[in-house]
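Good morning C.,

I know you're traveling, so I'll keep this short. The sequence:
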Amino acid sequence: MIFDTHAHYYDDAFDADRDALLSTLPEKGVALVVCPGCDLESSRQSMALAERYDYLYFAAGFHPENLEGVALSQLDQVKALCAHQKCVAVGEIGLDYYWVKTPEDRANSRDFFDAQLSLAEELDLPAIVHDRDAHKDCLDMVRAHPNARGVFHCYSGSLEDAKVLVDRGWMLSFTGNITFHNARRAPEIIRWLPMDRIMLETDAPYMAPEPYRGRRCDSTLIPLMAQTVAQLKGLTTEEVLNITLENGKRFFAIQ
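The tokens, ready to paste straight into the viewer:
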């Protein structure tokens, strides 16, 4: 049974067949999906999908690329969305220094990350963290919020940073890029990572694993990532799927 802990099914890549796809995922072995928002609109779209499909849950938050024209006061609306019975996290939040370039915009994204981690602490919800080319600042922010808990999704940091996060009780999640032939850090990190700290995700519609790299991704491709983890950990694919299912249920407090 598959738990896809991070998929953006509101994305327009699914406009042509969204309901047809989502209605058939359970019969294809998908047990659970978490759909994180990137702004108020996508958080509400994720909520609507969670209300429609029993197996789908959502998260609400502001992605660092979606902050133009947004005021910190709008986090009150994120907080209201988080009160929904199927909201399981604050996210997708974090820092992105690949796309966010100017010192002013980076400072603003740090303010939002800080405030949203505080919101996660206040609500006792986990945080789903996006970290691209901002590893030091993301870790510094985690250190500044000792009561926060969460997951670094599509983990791209170093083994040393992974050890810091695991020591603080955080989770790491991996996407289809761990199956790529040029994957560098992930194999070493996965070999070291305790199995109770790993989750799997698609980041759909992005990050499709080999041999589907470059195509639209969906939750049915999670077993290909589980196969890679299994090879690195000396387990079976089924064992990895079962462990990551239970890890995700525990992390998001889903019965």
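Safe travels,
E.
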